Here is the input.
Amino acid sequence: MSIHWFPGHMAKAKRLLLESVKLVDVIVELRDARIPLASANPLLDKIIGKKARIVALAKTDLANSEQTKAWLAYLEKVERVKAIGLNLKRQHEASRLLLPQISALADPLVPRSKQGNVRLRPARIMIVGIPNVGKSTLINSLAGKSTAKTGSLPGVTRSKQWIKLSDGSELLDTPGILWPKLDDVLVARKLAVTGAIGQGGFDEYELAAWLLRYLADHFPILLGRYKLTSLDLAGEELLQAVGRARGCLVGGGDVDLQRAADIVLTEFRTGKMGQITLESPP
Here is the structure.
């Protein structure tokens, strides 16, 4: 499968992150709970350096809850970072779970006056992550109002802006970035299937066929919704079968594979297939 990525605005986003990291005390790295490894941008370690960091797994409502618990334990034990899971659809959950952790890390790092030990400025935070992982939704939740533009397409938020949070701290919004080369085909597919890569970067038909074969191998019960007579088929044949089951037919009784692929990808991304985590801790 061929994945085409890292357009001009992604290169610009990387430069912006390099400039911005010097301005903040704590970094929140937002990953997708369905793919905690694939959504960990390898560029971030170099960009972030030794800055205080929290890893937040977003979209826990779409991931397997037991796997999320296992991943949080792994991140804290192996990657040695504070890790939390977030269902961004729950009102106030981000503020309740994340803000205290940010405050605890940032408080000793904020410059203070020599006399009176008074803060010279608010704590400053930056949220980073791959495109479409939920950064804008998280920012709006922490700010208590709609401040960052949200959307279902990667790269919606690209401009640099400071946002005042309810506790007085300041949050720097930054664009989501992917890395220049997606050499690992499995990682690329996981990123594409969860929505981190825009539609122009991959073939939807090929991706949906791969997803169906992957689910048939690892989560066959989830494909029961399509009432397929057999799962012992190639991915392309499974997509044909799903298309027929869902009535995606055109003239002559042929299957509209584009429509079938759209159904499969949409139902996976929206959780209609069930709560699925595509990776287990090493």
Observations:
- Residues 149-159 have pLDDT under 50 and may be disordered.
- The first helix runs from residue 8 to 20.
- The chain has two domains: 8-173, 203-269.
- Residues 155 and 166 are 26 Å apart (CA to CA).
